[in-house]
Amino acid sequence: MYKILIADDHPLFRDAIANIIAESFKASTIEQTEDIDSTLEFVKDNDDLDLILLDLNMPGMSGLQGLLALRNECPTIPVVIISAERDKQTILQTLSYGAVGFIAKSSSKTCIVEALESVFAGNVCLPADIMRLPEIPKPNNEFVVLPEKIASLTRRELMVLKNLSQGEANKQIAVNLFISEATVKSHVSSILKKLGASNRVKVVLGCADIDFSQHM
User: Fold this and answer.
1) Domain ranges in the chain?
2) pLDDT of 130-147, one tens digit each?
3) Strands 79-83, 29-33: pairing kind
4) Residues 6+ apart with CB under 8 A from 209
5) Which GO biological process annotations does it have (predicted)?
6) CA 59 to chain CA centroid, nearest Å
7) What would the mean pLDDT of 184-200 be, rounded to a whole number?
8) What top-level class would CATH report for the domain 147-214?
9) Which residues of 39-50 are buried (b: 16+ CB within 10 A; e: fewer)?
């Protein structure tokens, strides 16, 4: 079903998450890495991943630089932070670095499964206490998609972008457009490059007000 990478330096925790995924998402392929260097090396040869679950405190990680390096290496693969971190500003800052969600390591099995289902559906997932904040900063909303950049996209890329802006995951876009998932990922990479966006979250926010019917 899905191909997921668990990047965490604690073998017991990796195995626990792997068991939850295997039980809840049948037929999924689960890979594991234990530090940022092996994680970066793995994604270079595995651009078909559907999700990366990343611990913020693995060996080689310095603050959020490990997340940033991972987003630069694989901008089209969704990354969800799974960590014991409790600082709300740090959690929110991971979004500005391109993460699509945050799962606390103390979360119940049910919460973890629901968070993963939400991400696979194309949503951003955050802890309940973060969602209850009066106003959640949106560090990515300064990104604007300029009309001339939209004009540089091919018709197929526009179709992918329209689906992408609706929060759909690569698998669903492939089904909708009757193309392979690999082709979708290729189009997403091209779209990010042409629009000047570092990750798909920025594209979704930047395209919120675009009327695609005027461009297709």
Assistant:
1) 3-132, 147-214
2) 655 444 444 444 567 777
3) unpaired
4) none
5) phosphorelay signal transduction system; regulation of DNA-templated transcription
6) 22
7) 85
8) mainly alpha
9) bbebbeeeeebb
